[in-house]
């Protein structure tokens, strides 16, 4: 056997191992470039071997190039197929009529309203959010949302900010047509008027245009943790949740499946109730991001496919949020790691008991106005320099 042939045969597994290492360590673009170079190299080598009468080796090299291209093509097709599973919901007629919503700013920055949909009766199987809205009508009380977040992605795509609106925030509620109703806890908007009623309410509250909305049900949180093998969070003090009959021991706790759901749902037993629950939700998302972005999940084809399937199977977005735009957004965020994602919570003025709504959070209106202005002006870094305590603390300090 010729020396060049031996070298070539050894180079193939070594190259595959090298590419896999690059993918696992986050060098996806470099791995993709080298993969293209490798395929082109095999084709050139096959042509050279063929012209020199080495038909057998030419056939093997060409077969290798075709198999590699086919495998990569199938992987890409499968990822796109996963995006096709995302449910889409259409806004009601007249939703975008002139003057009905805050104006879009001439910027590449994005605001995405992220909501968690929770079935209040776990023993009753219900249609999905998209199925609920298929006929244009919302079944009042079918779902509630205890997770409402404005995800702000600046124009330079170098950072991201997640601003949580606690579910007990006492605000005017608007329906999907923009009609104002009485003040209530903000999660009443989702229960009574669905995703588009919540979007209207948040836009009225913030004065900001939401470019897109996304709803993920709580089963999606559960399946996501299973797909990535769970995440670890630190509990600073042992705490008992009487509502879910769950004790969280001081120290590191592994969250996966239903245990992860219990962690993000807990409010009872926490000192600051709703605000501590928000901190837990943010802490959980931070841990998930660290696992998926920093530990090679994206670079591992098998794990990434499972992770994407867990998300897309439980995700609903507005019908203007196309697969192409989702792909473009994901590519534009290449290089964004978990440390560059900042979590903030809407400022509180005080707690109050309201006869029609019970215990509620009264928002610090002046501070909130400053926060939303910073989001709209893409100056969140300056806001957090001024109010550093508004950012989610170290993972060891989250209740």
CATH topology of the largest domain: Aminopeptidase
Name of the CATH class of the largest domain: Alpha Beta
Strand tally is 15
Largest sheet: 7 strands, mixed
Tertiary shape: globular
Helical segment count: 12
Distance between the termini: 66 Å
In N-to-C order, the SSE pattern is: HHHEEHEEEEHEHEEEEHHHEHEEEHH
Q: Give average pLDDT, whole number.
A: 86
Structural class, please?
A: alpha+beta
Read across the widest sheet, the strand sequence of neighbours is: 1-12-7-2-3-4-13
Relative helix content: 40-55%
**Beta-strand content:** 15-25%
Provide a brief overview of the structure.
With 399 residues, the chain is α+β, with helices and mostly antiparallel strands. It is built from twelve helices and 15 strands. It has two domains: 82 residues, no CATH class; 292 residues, LCP protein (Aminopeptidase, 3-Layer(aba) Sandwich).
Question: Can you describe this structure?
Answer:
The structure is a single chain. 45% of the residues lie in helices and 21% in strands. The protein has 399 residues and is α+β, with helices and mostly antiparallel strands. The protein folds into two domains: 3-84, no CATH class; 106-397, Aminopeptidase (3-Layer(aba) Sandwich), CATH 3.40.630.190. The chain has a seven-stranded mixed sheet, with helices on both faces. Strands 5-6 form a two-stranded antiparallel ribbon. Strands 8-11 form a two-stranded antiparallel ribbon. A hairpin with a 6-residue loop joins strand 3 (144-153) and strand 4. Helix 1 packs antiparallel against helix 2. It is globular. The model has no long low-confidence stretch (mean pLDDT 86).
């Amino acid at each position: 056997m010729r020396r060049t042939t031996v070298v070539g045969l050894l180079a193939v597994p070594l190259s595959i191992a090298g590419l896999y290492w690059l993918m696992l360590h986050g060098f996806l673009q470099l791995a993709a470039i080298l993969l293209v170079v490798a395929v082109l190299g095999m084709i050139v080598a096959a042509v050279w071997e063929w012209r020199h009468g080495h038909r057998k080796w030419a056939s093997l090299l060409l077969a290798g190039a075709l198999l590699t291209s086919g495998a990569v093509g199938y992987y890409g097709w499968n990822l796109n197929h996963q995006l096709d599973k995302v449910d889409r919901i259409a806004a009601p007629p007249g939703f975008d009529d002139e003057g009905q919503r805050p104006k879009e700013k001439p910027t590449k920055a994005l605001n995405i309203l992220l909501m968690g949909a929770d079935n209040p009766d776990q023993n009753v199987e219900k249609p999905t959010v998209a199925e609920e809205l298929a006929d244009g009508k919302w079944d009042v009380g079918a779902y509630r949302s205890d997770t409402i977040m404005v995800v702000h992605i600046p124009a330079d795509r170098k950072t991201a900010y997640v601003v949580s609106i606690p579910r007990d925030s006492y605000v005017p509620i608007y329906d999907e047509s923009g009609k104002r109703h009485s003040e209530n806890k903000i999660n009443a908007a989702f229960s009574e008027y669905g995703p588009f009623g919540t979007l209207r309410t948040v836009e009225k509250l913030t004065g900001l245009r939401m470019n897109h909305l996304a709803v993920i049900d709580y089963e999606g949180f559960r399946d996501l943790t299973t797909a990535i093998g769970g995440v670890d969070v630190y509990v600073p003090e042992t705490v008992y949740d009487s509502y879910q009959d769950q004790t969280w021991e001081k120290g590191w706790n592994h969250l996966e499946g239903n245990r992860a759901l219990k962690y993000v749902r807990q409010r009872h037993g926490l000192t600051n109730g709703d605000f501590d629950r928000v901190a837990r939700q943010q802490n959980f998302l931070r841990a998930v991001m660290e696992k998926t972005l920093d530990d090679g999940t994206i670079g591992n084809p098998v794990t990434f496919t499972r992770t994407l399937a867990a998300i897309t199977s439980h995700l609903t977005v507005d019908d203007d949020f196309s697969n192409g735009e989702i792909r473009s957004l994901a590519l534009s965020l290449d290089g964004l790691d978990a440390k560059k994602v900042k979590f903030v919570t809407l400022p509180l003025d005080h707690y109050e008991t309201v006869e029609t709504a019970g215990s509620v959070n009264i928002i610090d209106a002046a501070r909130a106005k400053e926060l939303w202005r910073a989001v709209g002006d893409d100056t969140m870094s300056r806001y957090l320099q001024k109010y550093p305590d508004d950012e989610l603390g170290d993972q060891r300090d989250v209740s």
